[in-house]
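# step 3/5: fold
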Amino acid sequence: MKYFLGIDGGGTKTHALIADETGQAVGFARGGTGTWEGVGYDGLTNTLRDVSTRALEMAGLRMTDIVGAGVGLAGFDWPSQKEEHLDALMKAGFCIPIQIVNDAALGISAGAEEGWGVSIGSGTGCNCRGRSRDGKREGRVVGGASHWSGEAAGGFDILFRAMRAVTFEWTRRGPHTALTPLFIKAMGAKDLDDLIEGCYVGRYGFEPSMIMMVFEIARAGDQEAVEVMRWAGQELGGMAVGVIRQLDLQKEQFDVVLIGSIFDGHPMIQQSVGETVHHVAPAARLVRLNVPPVVGGVVLGMEAAGVDFRKLRTQLIASTDNMLRTEKDPA
């Protein structure tokens, strides 16, 4: 029996998943941060060793039983960083065929039916990656650079855009909005004047929980809040358009995989993404990722070992979902 290992290493957590050649998930483990930016390359090695060892123990396997691995890591942003990341993997015992990508690219392997296309991720920050049909070319944005690179549609960016609507009410550049009393109450300001001054001089700050409140105001129908949602979708869709053009996918039929909690905030975001993307690539299909991205790591591991993952994908997704559900709710 052949076995494959997938790793999804992010800024706050790392997942490891092992599956066999029938697509059956047999081992899983969670660990800490999976980016060198947080713990350095030695810390990255330790995390990789920890999660892979525990996943192997659950599966009753050794690393020598693994024939291919796919690894997605936050912080692996540029080709110049590849050797350092591969060195960290080798020190962790990954002496096997490996494909290594930025963690944002795992969504393509996990969510795109054919294993190629575009992924858009939006949570705290945002990112976009693409993969050509032959798997030999990558499309990308800078990734996580926010406003200076035109990649500003993560959670805090949406919050700041909502605050702009409040500021526009104060300056009379825009209409009244239900966002205004929300921000006044959430920050503990006396009134709108106090809010604007307090934000300017640093007396008040923004909290992550306020992002969910902005979504609630939009769902209640406030037009300024809905426009913030439309703007976010246009920004995220615009990143995808750039990647689509890089890979010459305008006339292709392919999947655009949507990843992250922001896409659950309001339907206008996804609608606006679709409108922006379809203006350039009419045949693109929007797909909401509903499986853990680490599944994409296993798919890449299969590719690294020369195994056709497409006939195994359905079973891999189903068995992984069952394993994780059983883990959360043991009998």
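# step 4/5: annotate
The domain at 3-115+290-328 is CATH 3.30.420.40 (Nucleotidyltransferase; domain 5).
# step 5/5: archive (pending)
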